Amino acid sequence: MKYNNIEFNTYFKNYPDANGYFGKYGGSFIPPELQTAMDEITQAYNTICKSRNFINELRRIRKEFQGRPTPVSHLARLSENISTGVQIYVKREDLNHTGAHKLNHCMGEALLAKYMGKKKVIAETGAGQHGVALATAAAYFGLECDIYMGAVDIQKQAPNVARMKILGANVIEVTDGLATLKEAVDAAFAAYCNEYKDAIYCIGSVVGPHPFPMMVRDFQSIVGIEAREQFTEMTGELPDSVVACVGGGSNAMGLFSGFLNDPVDIYGVEPLGRGTALGDHAASLTYGEEGIMHGFNSIMLKDKNGEPAPVYSVASGLDYPSCGPEHAFLHDIGRVKYGVVDDEETINAFYTLSRLEGIIPAIESSHAVAYAMKLAKEMNKGSILVNLSGRGDKDMDYIIEKYGIR
Ligand SMILES: *Cc1c(COP(=O)(O)O)cnc(C)c1O
Known about the structure:
This protein is α/β, with parallel strands linked by helices. The chain contains 16 helices and 16 strands. It has helices spanning 11-14, 32-48, 52-66, 76-82, 103-115, 129-141, 151-156, 158-166, 181-195, 212-235, 250-256, 284-287, 325-333, 343-357, 363-378, 396-403; strands at 2-3, 6-7, 21-22, 25-26, 72-74, 87-92, 120-125, 144-150, 170-174, 199-201, 241-245, 265-273, 289-293, 296-300, 336-342, 383-388. Bound molecules: pyridoxal-5'-phosphate.
């Protein structure tokens, strides 16, 4: 399929290019000593991860340890409740081991670390989901694990901090700046600069310098591959629309990669938080501009000095002032449309899905559900497939404290 002069039949061969570019976005903007480490990872990824041994081992792990394939569920009561004739379905990444999609790339990254002979994995975490997923992978493969986490997020996500510690990871508190995800990324990066000979950096999304946006997308593409097959088997056709929330954008790229070459409308959902003023949201693609941070060129939210702006979202996993370079590219060419939902719509969707379907979604995923509910009201027939990126157990205490039972 051709879209805006881009041939999607051969898309994955051509994007990113050899230097990690999706159009003008992506690349690698890092100190030379770190570039050596990145080149080593790129080289290893291109050889090891394409080898039959690696592919077979990862397949076995996905089935026997992660519990894949995760199902696709039809949301009959929610669809009925919106009552437009549109049928809504969800891809159940909440049922992936550890309760979110992030284990998909963590098992891939940690398996690569093992093949490369590394002893330690290093990462940042926001909601704590990436930290838990990586700590899980590290325990599985017998690797050391250092997780950098903002002090604010440590407060908000106490159960995930406990999980990481139980799994044997070192949780390192970051108190700089707003003490959330962005500062945690800076700290993890700095640590990796000193330790790259024995360690590998495992980024938590489709962000960072090349090869991470490509590698994480490829490890997450299992979501889209499974979902496309399951949906067509269930219904005999493709969904009309697919929807996923976008923080860095990994669960979204996972789902979208299964449908880019199909006549399917694709929607990414960004968090509008408290509103449109800078600092009140984290809708980078919607309100941002081109810029470089954390080693890659993408679209980001800047303050008046051109630095990454402070961001806010009720979802810790979405409060990042940039997004993966592939999203910036797909946004510019128009293949994916990006929309927003605010905190209030999100909390409403959180309760609606819980009450009508018996599924408590992560607050991040609730953004995608909220958007699908709005979209269903605009479409008067057809189907929507939503990526339910994670389960909401980690968010329950916070939601009850802040919003009460509704
Ligand atoms: C981390 C997280 C996200 C956001 O990350 P992406 O890379 O944008 O997918 C979304 N949902 C859940 C449940 C998460 O844990």
